[in-house]
Amino acid sequence: MFAENPPPLEPADFIFVCCQHGSEKAVKSEIADGYSGLNFAFSRPGFLTFKLTEDASLPLKFSLTSTFARTSGWSCGKVSGDDAAALVGEVLKSPAAKLCDHVHVWQRDTHVPGKKGFEPGQSILADEMASLIAASPSMADRKVAANQIAQANELVLDVVMVEPNEWWFGFHYATTTAGRWPGGVPKIDASQEVISRAYFKLDEALRWSGIKIKPGDVCAEIGSAPGGACQLLLEQEAIVIGVDPAEMETEILENPNFTHIRRRGNEVRKKDLRSVRWLMADVNAAPTYTLDIVEEMVTSSSVDVTGVVLTLKLVDMKFADQIAEFRKRVKGLGFSVVKSRQLAFNRGEICLVGVKDRFALRSSRQRVKTSKKPASKEASSAATDKESS
Ligand SMILES: C[S@@+](CC[C@H](N)C(=O)[O-])C[C@H]1O[C@@H](n2cnc3c(N)ncnc32)[C@H](O)[C@@H]1O
């Protein structure tokens, strides 16, 4: 047991990474390319650990530059057993448990989103376990929050329920937007009835990227049918143009703030996009096809968009290795802030966002500063406060 003041936290020998079920290979490949001081150690679907080599280190408040890592942190090991109270007791012995502001508990993804009824987000079991941990006397005294959104830079005790009776625990500092959410998943009620899952995807994309749609903003979506994303935009009081040869849901068509251009993206007259501020794309085609259409639109002299929110289909992950090129291409179109992430609600696809000016982002004024001093050469190129870029 520690005396009154526990010693400050130190980096551990391992880190953990959570990702979408099926994206483990992509995570391993990103880590191998960007972090030579991290060696793959262990994985289950949706969960991986990496060991730091002897000469490597990461800043205590590291955040990985990665499209596929949904969340990550220092890994302090695992506890197993069928007695939840005993598992909680073991977790509470960790130094992070003595100091944390928050406890985040979540279960690894058991399937890809939308399959076998699985949707990302907090499970009842994980919430109960988080409450159990936070109810321990030492945490209750400090008013540690259970499975709530952490404030910027707060210390979070992480418990990943890799199995209900096998918990991996560790900690991270909430230095990024997604790092503040339990398990890196925003609180989106996926049980609500929506026109399509694209509603949740776009909701998550906007929260993660910091793009705030203002009432009256003109948004266009290429690949808009049946209309889940348009439904969200209309709820946010945007003026919406849907571009799709397929039929839109009647509820969307009947909204006076919606216009349907029933064509393919490459057949749209650019003057019809004159007032568009935010351009979305969610076309079921190869990423290069989507990027070709977007490029043709945003380079037209009659179009002046502030930002793009693109869903890029990875088609069996074969395009995963080209994400850096896709980002570069979007940057080359004049979008100075470009980032990519496999959203929890994406499946077999990623989200790529580009904005012309970081001040267009709601979060730009609240940007969190992290250590710019990675402790090793290996870490220096990659360990920055970027969710991906
Ligand atoms: C995944 S669905 C889009 C879902 C939609 N975003 C929503 O919110 O419900 C993909 C759509 O892309 C459309 N599509 C395919 N090729 C297209 C193209 N060249 N231009 C515009 N839409 C296209 C399809 O008709 C299909 O409706």
Structural account:
This protein is 23% helix and 23% strand. The chain contains eleven helices and 15 strands. The protein folds into two domains: 14-176 and 368-380, VC0802-like (2-Layer Sandwich), CATH 3.30.2130; 198-366, 3-Layer(aba) Sandwich (Rossmann fold). It has helices at residues 24-34, 84-92, 95-99, 124-134, 137-142, 198-209, 228-235, 250-253, 287-298, 323-331, 377-380; strands at 14-18, 38-44, 47-52, 71-80, 102-107, 145-146, 155-163, 166-173, 218-222, 239-243, 258-261, 278-281, 307-313, 337-341, 349-355. The chain has 389 residues and is an alpha/beta fold. Helix 9 (287-298) links the parallel strand 12 and strand 13. Helix 6 crosses helix 7 (228-235). Bound molecules: S-adenosylmethionine. S-adenosylmethionine (SAM) is lined by residues 196, 198, 221-229, 243-246, 264-265, 282-285.
